[in-house]
């Protein structure tokens, strides 16, 4: 029967945990309860429990200080820590200190407590075995064995030297090795990537510490290496290869739970076979890599064991989205969110049917992004704030682990653009341009000016001119002249009017000014235009 001491400064929590399960059904018995660190220390030193379940945050002597003080006094036990969601840093320290498990107090369930107890009991057995071994064998441990293993793995898997010398201390202690390769990304996929990438980079060290702490509770030996801030691989070993699949799956599940709880992240795991020894380490890495890449097309489960999978052959040779660009352009210019959504759905369907590889798919997404961004980049700082730099989008896309992730990103991009078009359609500045062009179309036969239009729209002439130029790329006065001259050309083509009549009809001050404006717009005088049209006729 495993003897347990419960410690929490909140009596209700203490009573709640004590009544959560029938402890004897799990070969456990509560031998003491304490509501503060000092009294818990005295109780632990007197009762010598097998397992201590302690809150992290307590006055005077917190849970970690309590454990450290007991360990310094020579008392060895397994321990579980109770945390709140905001106690990440303390929970991480607890794992480093050797906690068998951490439990979030909010809505703690019986099955979670039972699983944690099983981990703690396993730690108890390990502590007992170590104590027995130290009594039976006074030989010192091989010095720096862990450092030798880390250096060897770095040489083989990072430096790419598969024939590197395998140290005896590593060969003799790493039995039945395997590799778990895993890629981490944000739990929910959104279009805008800067914050997500920044959070991943900032927390890379914390993430690795958490994963190391979890791995130490599942595998006899483990070592971590990183390819970048979001891709890691774990080299582990198990004494019993028969439990590999079950143990590795449990580790991956627990790791993902921790990533979700503390960082709102998720991971995909590619697992190699379990081997007899380390001589085929490069092959194990290739197996794990193949399993992880297989997930790109078959994303049913985030835990993929290597089973001789073959690489998926996509039909992307016919994958081309350029023919949709003209329609995309029209939908942007018309602020037509429904049309844009329909075109994006066609793009997503093409991705689904052609199943392009990761590099091809990411390249196509960047192609779409840069093309659409070109319609907004000159429309003011507000749009530049919405659209991230292309290089950030590319980095974000490369973090995705499946085609399903990329499709989700496209859907998020679609929704963001549709909202942007809807907002722009309601934007005051955009409406001003529409109202100005409508007024010109209705009054082109009159003498109209920028000031007159601004007065009608109840805004300043300067604001109207700047807004019109920003949204159309054309000066408003030039636009008025273009509209008038187009109508002048139509009147000349009828051969019914003299030039001074046309000038008068279109609101010009006099025929001379009409001729000057006509030549500025067309490059030729009204008379020369009439002659050209007559010659053609």
Number of strands: 10
Number of helices: 24
- Kindly, what is the distance between the CA atoms of the first and last residues, rounded to a whole number of angstroms? 110 Å
If strands are numbered along the chain, what order do they take across the biggest sheet?
Answer: 2-1-3-4-5
Average pLDDT over all residues: 84
Low-confidence stretches: 138-143
What radius of gyration results from the CA coordinates? 36 Å
What helical percentage do the residues reach? Answer: 55-70%
Q: Tell me about the biggest sheet?
A: 5 strands, parallel
Verbal overview:
The chain is an alpha/beta fold and 537 residues long. 57% of the residues lie in helices and 11% in strands. The protein is built from 24 helices and 10 strands. The protein has helices at residues 11-18, 37-47, 63-72, 88-97, 110-136, 145-158, 168-171, 194-202, 204-215, 244-263, 281-295, 325-333, 337-354, 358-373, 381-386, 390-398, 403-425, 428-443, 450-457, 461-472, 476-494, 499-505, 511-522, 526-536, and strands at residues 2-7, 28-34, 51-55, 78-83, 101-104, 177-186, 221-226, 231-237, 265-271, 303-305. The strands form 2 sheets. A 5-stranded parallel sheet has the order 2-1-3-4-5, sandwiched between helices. A hairpin with a 4-residue loop joins strand 7 and strand 8 (231-237). Helix 12 (325-333) runs antiparallel to helix 13 and helix 21 (476-494) crosses helix 23 (511-522). The protein is elongated. Residues 138-143 have low confidence and may be disordered.
